Amino acid sequence: MRVIIAGGGVVGSFLARILHEKNEVTVIDQNKDKCALLSSEKGTIRAICEDACEPWVLEFAGIEEADLMVAVTGDDEDNLVISYLSKFEYDVPKVIGRVNNPKNRWLFTPSWGVDVEVSTPDIIAKIIEEETTLGEIVTVMKLQASDVSLVEITLPGDASAIGSPLSELSLPPETLVVTVVREDAMIVPKADTVLREGDKVLAVTNVQNQKALEALLGHH
Question: Do 153 and 83 have their domain in common?
């Protein structure tokens, strides 16, 4: 499957790393450092350092042959423009749009070219996993978007979780560690991943368990 991801931030790069092993993945982002990092990794991730809102950039990325567009930039307006162009100018079969500001959610509809609107990485991963049968690469929770909270926590030096593998941590129910960022490198978490001081942990949890997760990881 040919996938184009607009946005090479934490969400976009995470999805690209998951998908590139079994799919043809192209990431578009204006940040040169993000593009260089993605291009330097093993695999077949193609990175284009341009503005995904420009039609010629989308065409250069191969949108006319794309099966899926994932617009996950940090700007809702950009995501809407990209979604609209993808669906109505280039007839991309499936378009997923990320909502950054919940107040803008009402705009992310089929009339703007958005087949599915999402607001957290785990939901995006779930949709793509089902479409591409990626098996158990990503474990996700079946929660409604309104019940999910995306939490970013940087571990302080006195965090009790430091030195422990994820499998030994007493994570709150309905909690998923999505990724760990360590010295600008993104780590796809596994059971034996050991947390260190300064690690930036991106996790998805039920909103009711957010405080318990923050307490476990030493967030004050």
Answer: no
Sheet holding 116-118, edge to edge: 46-48, 24-28, 2-6, 68-71, 94-98, 116-118
Is pTM beyond 0.70? Reply is: no
**What pLDDT shows up at residue 70?**
93
Q: Give the residue numbers spanning the domain of 179.
A: 145-216
Contact predicate 179/14, CB 8 Å: yes
Say whether both 96 and 194 belong to one domain. no
Q: Which 3 state secondary structure label does DSSP give 83?
A: helix
Backbone torsions φ then ψ of 126, nearest 5 degrees: -65, -45
Can you give the pLDDT at residue 66? 95
CB atoms within 10 A of CB 130: 10
**In terms of domains, do 12 and 67 share one?**
yes
Digit-coded pLDDT (tens) for 23-69: 899 999 999 888 888 877 656 789 999 999 999 999 999 999 999 99
- Quick one: 121 and 153 in the same domain? no
